[in-house]
Design brief:
Length: 214
Amino acid sequence: MTHVRTLPNPGANANDDADGWTELYDRVVPALKRHGVADGSPQVGEPFPDFSLPDMTGRYRSLRSICADGTVVVSFQRGLWCPYCSHELATWAEALPSLHEAGIKLVIVAGEVADRAITLQQLVGDNAIMLCDVDHGAALATGLAFHVADEMKRRYRAAGLDLGVIYGSDGWFLPVPATYVIDAGGIVRYAHADADFRVRADPHDVAAIAVALP
């Protein structure tokens, strides 16, 4: 079973490299890996650090309390502004019924706030738990956040992407997209975190792994 896949560059075609985004990413991603971005994130067999974040109603929910009811799938996302994340989140919407039927909760963690967070929740479905990672606190504590390099800042701004507005913070941090299956004891049973944000865990495969856990 293939658990991960590299998503194609959204909008790219043979004659147009999506305005050079692929070339930029091919330079930026190796630099992130050289700096060990996400290397310290939780691994299989380790306890997952607890965190408490607001849900769509503003109620703070801790990961520990969510895990108390059984297996949980946690997916850290950059947000709907990222086409790779939009693709993955739409696939999570497809996989969500099998998780829900098995009594497994899907927790989406993203830094987007206000209407953007509501739209994200609507895309995945009401049975998912959407948590707003204000100022990327949970991603930072989990070893998944990194500071955006100046070159990428310039490209995002030129493309009309203002991460300060999107995240409600001008810190210019981004989370590494990551997926975890965590059991009722808070132990990681599956982990995928790659500094190359184009490489994602396949939601259908992850759902099958979670459902198969004893």
